[in-house]
Amino acid sequence: MFIQNLSLTLILFLFGSSHVQSILLNRDQLATWFPLYSNVTLLELQYRQIDSISSDALANLTNLNKINLYINQLTSIEANTFVGLYNLTELDMGYNLIEMLNETSFYDLFNLKVLDLQRNKLSFFDDRLFSKLTSLETLNLNSNFLTRINAGSFSLLRNLKLLDLSQNQINEIETNSIPLNLIELNLSQNRVKMLDPVIFRQMKNLKFLDLYKNSLVTLDSSLFSDLISLENLVLTQNQIIEIDGIVFSQLINLKELYLGFNQIQSLNERALSNLTRLEQLHLEYNEINMLDEAIFQMNTKLELLFINNNNLSCLGVELFSNQFNMISLRLDFNMIESLNEKQFSSMKKLKFLYLENNALIAVNRLVFVGLVNLENVYMMNNPIADLMPSLIQKLCSTNTKCKIFI
């Protein structure tokens, strides 16, 4: 049975004759209606302009599994607001104006699995705030005003799998502050300049690590040494200058590595040698002027390689010799002057090749022979394309699918 009273904006979903399962109320009805429905399991209060909840408003709703307070005007949560809600597994308070949370706010929520506090105004929280949330698996704190993470902040969250701290103002992360059993950690868009070499120690389950848009300049050689399960590492848009031969050596399961938009001038010849499962590598928008011919030799599973917008002037004959699975290769916006006959010969799966905005003056006429899956080659804004357009068009004469754009 479905009852809707438009004058009170009350929606009740009834299952059976007497047990209310879900309630949607406006802020003026909290005190009036909550005591009447002890069997409610789902409470939907999003978009209600609620600015406060009294400490006893939810006291009778002990069967609640989920509370949605998404997009309201809450500025704080009283100490006893969630007392007695032992069955609660999901609490969403995202997109509010919360500046402060009492240290005991979540003390009775030991079955809570998902806590969303994104898009609030938290600048700090007591180290004891999350200490009782021993079942918590997902914690979202993105887009707040946090500046540091203390050692005890998340130390008792042994079941936490996903921690999102992105889009804060974090400039310091203390050692032993990050739960060891995490699978996904998002620290993107903060102000981190340096990471303690042991910050990720013993995090053997971590699969996704996002450090996008911080201020990292150097990476300690042992920083990622314990991340043996890591599959995705994002270091885009930092200020990294150099990649040594050891920093990625233990990332044996890494599939995607993002190093674009840094200031990298050189990569050690062994920097990628242990990344045998790597499928995507992003090196775009750096200051690389030379690549050792052996740099990609062990990365035989690469499908996407972006080296565009660097300072490369030449490509070694054997640079791509083991790239049997390459589908898309970006070399555009460099200063490459020539392409030899064997430059791409191993890339039988290659479909897209970007060579525009280089300084090409010499291209071997057999450079694309054997590349049976090649579809699009972009060669605009090169000297040779301007001087000999008809010759360039003939480079794909043996492949009817291939198109050259000049």
Report on this model:
There is one protein chain. 3% of the residues lie in helices and 20% in strands. The strands form five sheets. It has a 19-stranded mixed beta sheet, with no helix packed on it. Strands 6-8 form a two-stranded parallel ribbon. A two-stranded parallel ribbon has the order 11-13. It is elongated. The chain is built from three helices and 27 strands. The longest helix has 5 residues, at 383-387. With 406 residues, the protein is mostly beta strands. It has a domain at 1-136: Leucine-rich repeat, LRR (right-handed beta-alpha superhelix), CATH 3.80.10.
What is shown here, in short?
It contains three helices and 27 strands. The protein has a 19-stranded mixed β-sheet, with no helix packed on it. A two-stranded parallel sheet has the order 6-8. It has a two-stranded parallel sheet with strand order 11-13.
The chain-level mean pLDDT equals 90
Helix content range: under 10%
Which outline best applies?
elongated
Question: How do the helices and strands follow one another from N- to C-terminus?
Answer: EEEHEEEEEEEEEEEEEEEEEEEEEEEHHE
CA-to-CA gap between the ends? 67 Å
CATH class of the domain at 1-136: Alpha Beta
* Record field, number of beta strands: 27
CATH H-level homologous superfamily name of the domain at 1-136: Ribonuclease Inhibitor
Low-confidence stretches: 1-27
**Biggest beta sheet attributes:** 19 strands, mixed
In CATH, the topology of the domain at 1-136 is named Leucine-rich repeat, LRR (right-handed beta-alpha superhelix)
Q: In what range is the share of β-strand residues?
A: 15-25%
Structural class: mainly beta
**Architecture per CATH nomenclature, i.e. the level-2 architecture of the domain at 1-136:** Alpha-Beta Horseshoe
Cα-atom Rg, whole angstroms? 28 Å
